[in-house]
Amino acid sequence: MVEDLRTRRRQMTHREIHTAVLRLAAEHGLDQITVDQISAEAGVSRRTFFNYFQSKEHAVVSGPGELPAEAVAEFLAGTSVEPAQVLRDLSRLLLAEVEAHMPDRDDLRQVFALAYEHPAVLALLLADFNGFEREVASVVARRLGCRPEDETPTLLAAIALTAVRTGLQRWSLSEQPAADSPVPHVERAVALLHAVLAT
After folding, report:
1. What is the mean pLDDT of residues 171-184?
2. Per-residue DSSP letter, 104
3. According to DSSP H, which parts of 43-118 are helical?
């Protein structure tokens, strides 16, 4: 119980710093704000800021969440090693991750905008995506009984995550109400992917 409270508190502080940097960047521009300003806006000390992030650019990029343990277990319980079926199961796993760590659309839109404006943010965003892709490839490799760096898990992870990123980007640019969920957008991108592969 204590560990759960500690984890939730860390997640909350992480989120508060991330939200603070986005709010200040929107008001003043990322280049014009300092770590001290971000820390004050988030209500934390400068030392606490650096316990969570290496720089203000790192604070912009909060990164993907962790794959849900139950969804991973369900994926690993699948017996088929046929690539098309593994890809379908992997798509369901990634959809579960989107639902478990529902992003804020305005935040996501701003992160993408800052990435386009600032090469350092773009580099960190791509590094986060690449790290998550390696994690996904590792899970696929466990199912297939091979190494994460082998061709099949690497390719399946890249393909599935491309569809997820496409859906999230489309959602971030959507003019639908704020309560609109990213899940249908990701589902459409995934369905299109499988339709293309089936032709």
Report:
1. 76
2. P
3. 46-52, 56-60, 69-77, 83-100, 105-117
Q: Tell whether domain 69-198 is in CATH 1.10.357.10.
A: yes
Q: Are 154 and 87 in contact (CB under 8 A)?
A: no
Would you give the end-to-end CA distance of the chain in angstroms?
51
Would you call 117 helix, strand, or coil by DSSP? helix
Domain ranges of the chain: 2-60, 69-198
Rounded CA separation 68/155 (Å): 21
CATH level 2 (architecture), domain 2-60? Orthogonal Bundle (1.10)
Q: How many CB atoms lie within 10 A of CB 4?
A: 8
Render pLDDT for 55-86 as a digit per residue (tens, 0 to 9). 999 999 977 677 888 889 999 999 999 998 99
